[in-house]
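For the sake of transparency, this paper describes our internal protein records without simplification. The tokens are whole numbers drawn from a learned vocabulary of local backbone shapes. One such record is reproduced below, unchanged from the form in which we store it.

. . .
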Amino acid sequence: MKLFEGKQILVTGGCGSIGSHLVNRLLEFNPETIRVFDNSESCLFEMQSELADYSDTMRYLIGDVREPDRVAMAMEDIDVVFHCAALKHVELNEYNPFETIQTNVQGTQNVIRGALEAEVESLVGISTDKASNPTSVMGATKLLSERLIIAANTYKGNRDTSFNC
């Protein structure tokens, strides 16, 4: 599959369970660069050690989707974004709803804006089954994240960026 061959790819939340698996799979498609964007320095360091054979391809960026300026910097010259960054543990999210909103909703807004400004080719939001008929804070924020990403297709103007979940 040549879909990602030679592409510059950004994976937000690239050290998480889904993001790290995605990074490993993307390496099979011979991209030019994969930028792993995560707020965990320790996890980025571990991933850098594990993927040392791919040092020419991999870039490790410490940052948080809550910070729009850092997101914008991470998006420079990117072709494809996989937005995996999220708070995902239902019980912790119920106890910390404001934090969940800041990451899952406002963070997604920052990623969308960054993608629009950088005019990336495609943004793919990674979601969860809990966004379908949500009964928790986490599910509700992931549903809203999905809706924001899909709605970006209508307000992107003349840009060619494709927004998908």
The mean pLDDT is 95. The radius of gyration is 15 Å. Strands lie at 8-12, 33-38, 58-62, 80-83, 122-125, 162-164.
